[in-house]
Each structure stands twice: as C-alpha cells, then as structure tokens.
Amino acid sequence: MKLITAQKLPAPGGHYSHGVLAGKLLFISGQLPFLPGVQAFPEGINAQCIQAMANVEAVLQAAGASLDHLVNVQIYIVDVADWPIVNSTYSALMGAHRPARVIIPCGPLHHGALVEISAVAEIE
C-alpha cells in the first residue's frame, strides 16, 4: 500500500490521504472543488464540478495516471436538481471514456460545497 499526495492540492483537512494505491487500484478520497492555492470554491455547480474533477485528476497525475484510468466515480451533490448539469459537465470532461458512475444526492457537504467527487482507478 502506498499513500498518494497531490502537491497541487491543499493538505487533507482530516485524517485521510488524497489517494491510496493498493496493488493496481488507486482509491481517491472525496475531492471538494477547492481552487488551487486557496481555500475557496468557484461559483456555481458547473464550475465546482469542473474543479472537483480537476482535483481528482491531480491525484491521478500524482500516481502517474489520467482520467482514462478511472474505473468508478462517485459524485455527491446537495441538490438533485443539479443532476443534469453535473451529468453534462462530467460527460464533456470524460469524453468517450465511460467508467462506472453514480451521482448521489446528499445533505450539506463540507464548507458549503455543491459537489464532492471520489473515485477508483486502475494503475497499470
């Protein structure tokens, strides 16, 4: 097992790692849409989804991988009405790659974020 730290991201705010590589699987902790270098989120669900995915990608890159290595993605949203926007934004970011995915409406997210994304990737 190897702990993965993405230097582009803020240090974890709790007792966890950005990612954990276990064998060929990389488990990526939930990523909030923090902008690089600041403790702030962009405005709106579309921009937050893009930033949260960029943060997932930063963990992937720290492990030598890319979005194409994702095998499962979990997206948490505070408002189910945002599902169409999140789905469209995610689709544009992922292109032809279609890992397993779930979008889960949930209660409030930490720091008032509108979206949080965790994922699993296979590293070759």
Structure commentary:
One of its GO terms (molecular function) is deaminase activity. InterPro entries: RidA_CS (IPR019897), RutC-like_sf (IPR035959), YjgF/YER057c/UK114 (IPR006175). This is RidA family protein. Belongs to the RutC family. Pfam families: Ribonuc_L-PSP. This protein has 124 residues and is α+β, with helices and mostly antiparallel strands. It has one domain: 60s Ribosomal Protein L30, Chain: A (2-Layer Sandwich). 24% of the residues lie in helices and 29% in strands. It contains two helices and six strands. It has a six-stranded mixed beta sheet with strand order 1-2-3-6-4-5, covered by helices on one side. Strand 2 and strand 3 (25-31) form a beta hairpin. The chain is globular and about 40 Å long. The relative contact order is 0.25.
CATH architecture: 2-Layer Sandwich
Please give the share of residues in helix: 10-25%
Radius of gyration: 13 Å
Percent range for β-strand residues: 25-35%
| Helix segment tally | 2
Low-confidence stretches: none
**CATH secondary-structure class:** Alpha Beta
Strand order of the largest sheet: 1-2-3-6-4-5
Give the domain tally: 1
Shape descriptor reads globular
Mean pLDDT: 97
Reported for the largest beta sheet, the result is: 6 strands, mixed
Distance between the termini: 15 Å
How would you classify the helix and strand content by structural class?
alpha+beta
* SSE order: EEEHEHEE
- Strands, total number: 6
Tell me the name of the CATH homologous superfamily. RutC-like
- The CATH topology annotation reads as 60s Ribosomal Protein L30, Chain: A
